[in-house]
Amino acid sequence: MNIHEYQGKEILRKYGVAIQRGIVADTPDSAVAAAKELQAETGTQWFVVKSQIHAGGRGKGTVRETGSRGVVLAKSLAEVPEKVKGILGGTLVTHQT
Q1: Partners of 48 in the beta sheet?
Q2: Domains of the chain as residue ranges with CATH
């Protein structure tokens, strides 16, 4: 079965499993809005931006077009748009792809 991480988390949450909150974003603007929402709820200043592909090794993988990793840490709200731009629309190459 091929499902993305966020889809698997939705299934687990539906059955009462405690899952860390995440928000799916498909543009830099929607990622900033999601980060602001998480910041308002939790007070966090750091945000993890994750690519969604049907393969493992996203954190060690590299986006061919930008050199970004598939999982990156934005240490401020201001960093979120650039981190997202480094991933969106690119081809993530991992040891499993």
Answers
A1: 73
A2: 5-93 (3.30.1490.20)
